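Hey team,

Filing this mostly as a record. A colleague (T.K.) asked me to run one chain through the structure pipeline before their review meeting, and I want the input and output archived in the tracker in case anyone asks later how it was produced. No errors, nothing strange. Just documentation.

Input sequence:
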Amino acid sequence: MTDENTQGPVPSFRLPRVDPWSLGAIVIAALVLLPLMAVLWLAFHPTENIWPHLVATTLPRYFGNTVILMSAVGVLAGVTGTLTAWLVVMYRFPGVRWLEWLLLLPLAIPAYVVAYALVDFLDYAGPVQTALRGVFGWTDSRDYWFPLIRSRGGAIVVLAAALYPYVYILARAGLREQSGCVYEVARALGTGPVGLFWRVGLPLTRPAVAAGIAIVMMETVNDFGVVEYFAVQTLTTGIFTVWLETGNAGGAAQIACVILALVLGLVALEKFSRRRARFHQLSRRQRGVERIGLGGWRAWTATAVCTLPFAIGFVLPVCVITAHALSKPDRWFEQGLLRALWNTVATGGIAAVLTVTLGLFLVYGVRLTGRALPRLMLPVTTIGYAAPGAVLGLGLLIPLAWFDNTLADAWTAISGTDPGLILTGSATAIVLAYVVRFFAIAQGAADAAMGRVSPSLPMAARALGRTAGGTLTAIYIPLIRGSVGTALLLVFVDCVKELPATLLLRPFNYNTLATRVHEQASLERIGEAAPAALLVMLVGLAAVALLARANR
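Output structure:
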C-alpha cells in the first residue's frame, strides 16, 4: 500500500495480541484484591467519620483483647503442637502409633463447636458442677470456687485446643525430615533429652513451628464464633457491632484496616524471623529418626501429655454434641436442618469447584506464559487467605450491593420491572467470599502438584500438536488428580466451617450448617444445634482422614 506524497509503504498498525493466560491472571488477582480495595476505600472515604470516637472509646479495648488473645493462643498452641510432635517422633510410649494420627483430629472440629461443648460440660448447669454439688452437698455457686468458663481465658483454651494441629502437623513433618545422625551425634557428645530438644530439635524445626504459629494467630484474629459466645470483644466482633448495630460501614472498614495491618504484620514478622535460617541435608541417603523407648512413669506421662489436647479438642466436643444429637432423634428431620444442609453443600461445592478451577488456570497460565505480569500476580492472589472472613464480607458486600442496585435501577428503567438483588440477594456473594478466602489452598496444591510433573511430558504433547488447553486436560489433570481432589475437599471443608463471612453475606432467612449452629447455640439451644454441629464435624473428619492418608 503506497501514498502519492510518500516514497515508501504506509506503516500498518496492529493491536497487540492478547494473551488469555496473562489476562486471566489479572482478572483472578483483581477478584482477590477487590474486597480489600473496597475496605480501604470505605475506610478513607467514610460517610460519617467516627474514627476519633473509636480511638477514644472502644478501639483500644478491641485491639488489646485481640493482641492478648492471639499472643496467648499462639504461645499455647505453639507449645502444645511442638511438644506433642517431638514426643511422637522421638519416643516410643503406650499408644504412640494411635496418638500420632489422633492428634490431627481437632482440625475437624470448628472452634465454635468446641466452645459450645465446653460450656455445656463445665458450666454451672453442666454435669461436672452438678456432680460436684451432689457429692459435696453444695447448694449454689457461693459454696465453692470454679473457673469462669465464659471468659477470655476460656476462649484462649478453646482456640488453642482447636488450632494446635496447625503447629503439630508442620513440626512433625519438620522433625521427620531431619537425619537421625544429628541426634545421635548430639547424644554421643553428652546432650540429654531436654538439651536435645532445645539445642537441636527446636532450632532445626523453627521455620515450620513459626509458620504454624503464624497460621494459628491469623485464625485467632479471624474467629468470631468463640469470642462472641464468650463475650470477648475483639476487632472482629467490633466490625459486626459498628456495622450491623450502628449502621456505619465506614467505621467498620476502619476497624477492618486495623485487622489487615495486624495480619500483614504477622506475615512479615514470620518471614523476617527466618530470613537467614538455612538448613541443608548433608547426604542424599539419610537415616530417619529412630524412636527411643520410654519406660515407667515417663512413658505414661508422655501418653498423658499427648492425650490431653486430643481429649479437649476432639473427644469432649464429639461426646457432648453426639449425646445431644441422639437424645431427641426428631431434631434430625426438622425442615430448617435439611435446608441448611442443602445450602451448605451447594455453596461449598460450587465454591470448591470454582476455586480449584481458577487455581489450576492461574498456575498453569503462569507456567505456560513467559510474561512477567502473571508471575508477579501469583503471590498477590494468596492475600485473601490472610484476610479474616469478616473483612472479606465487608469488602464484598458494599461493591456487590452497589452493582446490584445499579443493575436493578437500569433494568427497571428499561423494562419497568424490578429484578431484585441478583448477587447480594442470593448465595453468590457467599460463594465469591469463599473463593477469595480459600484461593491460596487451591493455588498452593496446584502449584506443588504441577511442579512434580516432568516437563518433558507437556513438551512432547505440544510437539505432537496438542494445544495449551489440550495439554492441560490430557497430561496435567490425569497426573495431578489426587492433589486436585485433596484441594477440592479441603476447600469444601473450610467453606462448611466458615462463619463470619457467611453471617455477613447471607441473604435474609438463608442458613448454612455453620450459621444454624451459631444461631441455635447463641440462644442456649445446644440440643437444637447438635445435629447441624455433628454434620459439620463429620465433613471435617473426612478431610482430616484424607490429610492423614496423604501424610503417611
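Quick notes for T.K.: The two ends are 69 Å apart (CA to CA). The longest strand covers residues 91-92.
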